[in-house]
Specification:
Blueprint: E1 2-4, H1 5-20, H2 24-36, E2 38-40, H3 50-72, H4 78-97, E3 119-127, E4 134-142, H5 161-168, E5 173-176
Parallel strand pairs: 1-2, 3-5
Antiparallel strand pairs: 3-4
Length: 179
């Protein structure tokens, strides 16, 4: 597992602040996670969807469940343990989404959905006799994202005027009606 460089730096800063405030347990927990999860470049392509996140959380909770089982020397029914793991995982996600600063329920690394992928759409309409028989074919071709040409090239978070104008227009659509 990795963390974006920005997230890694923010967590490291929070650990330092926690130590300064005497919150050694918080600082140790953050430090432990920063050691386990190395930093990757902020712009590195690493899709991570909600289902994968839930799976990772569930695996981590099962690690805690196994520690509790070992501690008490008690082996409950696995289905009950699974229900506990799922409940704690759902509670964790729900509570994290309520924290101040959470801007969206959609993950920053979610794979793009079809409407977010730049595409060239060509509509070809052919008419045959009689007029009731009209056939339309839609061809979709993905356009590689080459950015807008500004200093933030290929960055989806660019925000420059060129990018805004391209996103707002119909220039990406081409309708072809053969004669």
């Amino acid at each position: 597992m990795t963390l974006s460089k920005t997230a890694h730096l923010r967590l490291t800063a929070q650990a330092a602040e926690a130590r300064y405030q005497g919150l050694t347990r918080v600082a140790k927990n953050i430090d432990c996670q920063c050691e386990k999860n190395k930093a990757r470049a902020d712009d590195a392509e690493q899709p991570y969807d909600r289902e994968t996140l839930k799976k990772d959380i569930e695996e981590a909770i099962w690690g805690a469940v196994s520690r509790v089982i070992d501690y008490f020397d008690f082996v409950p029914d696995a289905r009950d343990c699974q229900e506990v793991a799922e409940g704690v995982g759902d509670d964790l996600l729900g509570r994290m989404q309520l924290l101040p600063g959470m801007e969206s329920a959609v993950g920053a690394r979610e794979p793009k959905v079809p409407g977010e992928i730049p595409q060239m759409i060509t509509l070809v309409i052919s008419e045959e006799e009689p007029m009731d028989d009209v056939e339309a074919v839609v061809e979709v071709e993905e356009i590689p994202d080459e950015g807008c040409g500004c200093s933030e090239k290929k960055s989806p978070k660019c925000g420059c005027d060129k990018k805004k104008k391209a996103d707002a227009g119909w220039d990406d659509y081409d309708v072809v009606i053969p004669a």
